[in-house]
Amino acid sequence: MTLTSYIFGIVSALLILAVVVELLRRRHLRERHAIWWFVAGLLALIAGVFPDTLVWASHLVGVEVPINLVFFVSIAILFLVCLQHSSELTQLESKTRTLAERVALLELAQKERETSE
């Protein structure tokens, strides 16, 4: 690993963490959505500061090339983010449908009240 790639890895990981913290601070990102991005940033920082941990982890799980473990973990984190968003989207759709039905019933009750007067 060259010094340039070593520094690039650390700076990239710190940049990811800084962006996540700034989005949290400005309330553009909720805590529950930031968890997986924090995990990704911390793993990138650990792999950037201690590159031998990546080699150790790849040997531990039986991956021949350490960069393949990075791709696998990245895809797994993105999968978890998509799964979390799908779950929340399903809940929001259910709440929206319930609200639309309540509004329709209220409008119907209001029209019936107006016609009876």
From TrEMBL:
Transmembrane helix as UniProt keyword:
yes
What is the species listed in this Swiss-Prot or TrEMBL entry? Homoserinimonas aerilata
Name of the protein:
DUF2304 domain-containing protein
Q: Does the keyword Transmembrane helix apply?
A: yes
Q: Where are the transmembrane segments?
A: 6-24, 36-59, 65-83
Q: Which UniProt keywords apply?
A: Membrane, Transmembrane, Transmembrane helix
